[in-house]
Amino acid sequence: MRKKLNYLGIMVTVLLIFIHPTYRQSGWAAPHTQEAIWTITSPAEGTIAGGEITIIGTASLPNFDSYGVLYASGPQPTANSQWVPIVFGERTMVVNGPLATWDTTALPNGQYTLALAVYEVGNTEPKLDFTNNITIFNEAATPTPEITETPTPTAAAEQPATAPGEEGMVAPVGPTVEQPPTVTPRPTATLAPVDPTLQEGEEEESLIPTILSMDSVKETFSTGVQLAILIYVFGGLYAAIKAAIRYYLRRRRISHPLDLFKSNQNKPKGFGESKQ
Fold first, then answer.
1. Non-local CB neighbours of 139 within 8 Å, separated by 6+ positions
2. Is residue 99 part of a domain?
3. Across-strand partners of 56?
4. Does this model's pTM top 0.85?
5. What is the pLDDT of residues 176-213, one digit of tens each?
6. What is the DSSP code string of 51-63?
7. How far are the Cα atoms of 190, 192, 199, 200, 203 from residue 196, in angstroms, in the given order?
8. Angle, nearest 10°, between helix axes 214-254 and 257-265?
């Protein structure tokens, strides 16, 4: 009799475990049939957003297979809409949770349309839900200015050393002096470097071959000789031409005695005659 009572008590305890609502909530009861819900709850229609947008909603069917989230440009879907997948072929059902993350940083600003497509097992026609008039606005990134280092002037004062007992104190920095534009110097003749070990007399002797080189002396002498020869030749030609002209004129006077006679006839009387 006692064994029968124990057996009956065990049976009642097992029934209470399966029937009591506390154990049902903890997952011991049979699972419910999944409801057919496909919707995007965020972002809502007319939302203005940018950057990375978390798309929240529900993708649930009794014979759930997969879901995808897509977008197209334009305020509403049309027959010519070009759909771009954000995620596709996701095999896990989502109930009021994140469906996908939409990165809009690379998209041009404007209006877009979102679409949630949920597929059933053995059915290629998806269950669709559209969210229209989503405006994407991303501010253009401000270019970071490049920092140009200012050259430290050579005449800048040295920083004072830190006095004893003043560790941690920063010495004041002198003002930055802008250097004036440097004038390009004209090229000048550069003398050969002088050996500092030479004496004064040796230094002067070492400078003479540098200033008056043998090549320059030879070139100057050759030029002077050529000029002297040219002057001598031109002088000789001038003297020869002058002598030839005088000789020609003298010969002409001697070769025409009639001219000489006529010139004597035209002289006044007593001209050239000696007095008696």
1. 50
2. yes
3. 42, 98
4. no
5. 555 556 656 666 655 555 555 555 555 555 555 555 57
6. SEEEEEEEEE-TT
7. 17, 12, 8, 10, 9
8. 70
Return all residues near 116 (Cβ < 8 A) that are at least 6 apart. Answer: 38, 39, 40, 57, 59, 67, 68, 69, 99, 128, 129, 130
Q: Which of 120, 126, 128 lies closest to 65, judged by CA? A: 120
Report yes or no on 215 lying in a domain.
yes
Q: Is residue 118 part of a domain?
A: yes
Residues constituting the chain? 276
Measured at the CA of 240, the angle between CA 235 and CA 244, to 5 degrees, comes to: 150
Give the mean pLDDT of the chain: 74
pLDDT at position 239 over 70: yes
Cβ atoms 114, 40 nearer than 8 A: yes
Tell me the CATH number at 42.
Answer: 2.70.50.70
Domain boundary residue, one of 105, 121, 136: 136
Q: How many domains does the chain have?
A: 2
Q: Cα separation of 236 and 181, whole Å? A: 62
| 203 vs 208: CA distance, rounded Å | 9
**Neighbouring-strand partners of residue 49:** 136
Decide if 91 is inside a domain: yes
For residue 220, what are its two tokens?
Answer: 């100057």
Question: Residue 219 belongs to what domain range?
Answer: 207-262
Of the residues 136, 152, 174, which one is the last residue of a structural domain?
A: 136
